[in-house]
């Protein structure tokens, strides 16, 4: 295809495999908060020690060492708390290993880009697919130094990965570094310390099917009573039998409350996590459980009534409805969001834009087509060089968060989501659809045209438009169609099918029989040019 990469096939995105709901614990007394802090601090200290042991074991860790860690924690807490701590430690170590691999891939991409640009003469221009040389010898020298730094980093990270060494910060590396920039974060040392302690607490437990209300460690009854099993050193604080502490607050889940109640009534596993929002001074309870994967609808079924093509951008979603033939219907819509501010604000903005899009699609009974975007390898500074604005743009696009939110929210409403290959959708959409869809009363943007291209690819149609047939005097003067039938297609050189019914003019029988017979035309290279013929004799007199 002239150097173009192969476009992957579209597919229906699978539904969600788990859910999580959150409720605020209202009405906690001072004693309840004190007990929660003591339990969380104690278990957080044990989790930190266990994580240190797990990281020191590295790749040599096995099931026997895991059992030994659990036995050691059981003596100072309980068997169920020990199981929750060791499982969380294992998950955190595995996450660090995946992040380590992603860091290696980023370093490799940067080294490959710098090496190639250093091999090109200084000042040489690049192409659309490959960058050129550096602009000056000064920049070339600086990048050669950076190449050595990246190679040293890559060698070090590879050695750590082979040895199983990872670096993990309980509480988060970002919050840890905030300690050195309190003035920029507008925090005092006391406020930062409170947040740091809250993030390092451990108050979470996985569920157990068959146990009472699905969880013996943190138990929530159908009427909202919350109780937790106290560790052995804090058993004297219990206010209920069997070393349990019952909170004065009641939990009520506004979202999925009926599903949660059905699970706990049937003693099915539910995992809980209790955490404190220091900024608001509130405590929250999060319940989560797995659900069986719902069989996705076939791709052809999702295409039946058409769909909505959606183009993801840094500040909005551009959407356009298409019928099943790939024709744009109605007017394009734009669902904006603001990604500045806190993480909760950004998340709320994304959810608000998605719910408006999903409600629009549900009203018309349509599927949604989105690009299968992944910018994890595109944010490196070496790939885009001086284009800082563009690097900041793609870094700020919530591709993974938006995709996960869209799939989970669409599954709730029963709306299929079709993922398509993002290759050339913006370029070809602007080339073939932006100008034809622009009129006196409508200004079609490049993003709107990309939404049409995404929708046509999801429907299985080519992105290029179907052009009008040639004019009445053939296509030689006006130019050929932009979309031609491939050689060998049935009926490519045949007559047009006759449409039954009355005609506006009389056509004699047999007219146009040789219209497609190229050899019957008097053109260069055709047999009709070389046929024998004789001119009539000229009259000798008038």
How would you describe this structure to a colleague?
The protein is of the alpha+beta class and 542 residues long. It is built from 16 helices and 13 strands. The strands form 3 sheets. It has a 6-stranded mixed sheet. Strands 2-8-7-3 form a 4-stranded antiparallel sheet. Helix 1 (30-57) crosses helix 3 and helix 2 crosses helix 3 (79-119). The longest helix has 41 residues, at 79-119. The radius of gyration is 33 Å and the shape is globular. The model is unreliable at 479-485 and 528-535 (pLDDT under 50).
**Weakly predicted, low-confidence segments:** 479-485, 528-535
Q: Shape, please?
A: globular
Order of helices and strands: EEHHHHHHHEEEEHEEHEEEHEHHHEHHH
Provide the gyration radius in Å: 33 Å
Total DSSP E strands: 13
What does the largest sheet look like?
A: 6 strands, mixed
As a percent range, the share of helical residues equals 40-55%
Question: What is the average per-residue confidence, as pLDDT, rounded to a whole number?
Answer: 83
Question: Structural class given helices, strands, pairing?
Answer: alpha+beta
Task: Give the strand line-up of the largest sheet.
Answer: 1-13-12-9-10-11
Strand content: 5-15%
* Tally of helical runs: 16
Distance between the termini: 66 Å
């Amino acid at each position: 295809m002239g150097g173009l990469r192969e476009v992957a096939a579209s597919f229906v995105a699978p539904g969600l495999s788990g859910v999580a709901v959150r409720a605020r614990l209202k009405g906690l007394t001072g004693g309840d908060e004190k007990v929660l802090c003591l339990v969380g601090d104690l278990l957080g200290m044990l989790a930190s020690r266990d994580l240190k042991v797990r990281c020191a074991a590295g790749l040599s860790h096995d099931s026997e060492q895991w059992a030994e860690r659990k036995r050691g924690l059981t003596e100072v807490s309980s068997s169920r708390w020990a199981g929750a701590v060791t499982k969380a430690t294992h998950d955190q170590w595995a996450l660090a290993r995946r992040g380590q691999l992603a860091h290696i891939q980023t370093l490799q991409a940067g080294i490959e880009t710098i090496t190639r640009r250093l091999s090109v003469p200084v000042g040489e221009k690049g192409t659309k697919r490959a960058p050129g040389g550096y602009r000056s010898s000064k920049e070339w020298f600086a990048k050669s130094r950076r190449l050595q730094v990246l190679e040293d980093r890559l060698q070090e990270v590879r050695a750590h990965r082979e040895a199983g060494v990872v670096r993990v910060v309980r509480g988060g590396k970002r919050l840890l570094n905030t300690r050195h920039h309190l003035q920029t974060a507008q925090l005092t040392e006391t406020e930062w310390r409170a947040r740091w302690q809250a993030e390092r607490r451990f108050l979470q437990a996985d569920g157990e099917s068959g146990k009472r209300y699905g969880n013996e460690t943190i138990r929530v009854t159908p009427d909202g009573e919350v109780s937790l099993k106290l560790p052995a050193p804090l058993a004297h604080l219990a206010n209920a039998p069997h070393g349990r502490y019952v909170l004065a607050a009641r939990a009520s889940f506004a979202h999925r409350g009926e599903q949660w109640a059905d699970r706990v009534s049937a003693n099915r596993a539910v995992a809980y996590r209790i955490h404190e929002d220091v900024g608001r001074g509130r405590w929250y309870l999060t319940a989560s459980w797995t659900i069986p994967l719902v069989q996705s609808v076939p791709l052809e079924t999702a295409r039946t009534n058409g769909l909505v093509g959606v183009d993801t951008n840094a500040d909005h979603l551009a959407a356009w409805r298409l019928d099943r033939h790939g024709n744009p219907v109605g007017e394009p819509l734009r669902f904006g969001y603001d990604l500045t501010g806190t993480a909760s604000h950004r998340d709320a903005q994304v959810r608000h834009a998605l719910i408006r899009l999903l409600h629009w699609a549900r009203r018309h009974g349509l599927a949604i087509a989105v690009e299968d975007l992944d910018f994890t390898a595109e944010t490196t500074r070496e790939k885009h060089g001086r284009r800082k604005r563009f690097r900041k743009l793609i870094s700020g696009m919530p591709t993974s968060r938006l995709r996960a939110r869209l799939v989970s929210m669409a599954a709730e409403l029963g709306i299929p989501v079709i993922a398509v290959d993002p290759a050339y959708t913006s370029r070809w959409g602007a080339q073939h659809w932006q100008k034809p869809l622009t009129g006196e009363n409508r200004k079609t943007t490049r993003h709107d045209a990309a939404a049409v291209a995404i929708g046509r690819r999801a429907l299985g149609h080519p992105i290029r438009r179907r052009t009008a047939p040639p004019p009445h005097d053939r296509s030689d003067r006006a130019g050929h169609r932009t979309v031609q039938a491939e050689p060998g297609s049935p009926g490519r050189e045949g007559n047009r099918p006759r449409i039954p019914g009355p005609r506006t003019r009389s056509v004699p029988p047999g007219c146009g029989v040789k219209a497609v017979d190229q050899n019957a035309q008097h053109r260069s290279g055709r047999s009709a040019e070389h046929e024998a013929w004789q001119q009539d004799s000229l009259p000798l007199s008038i």
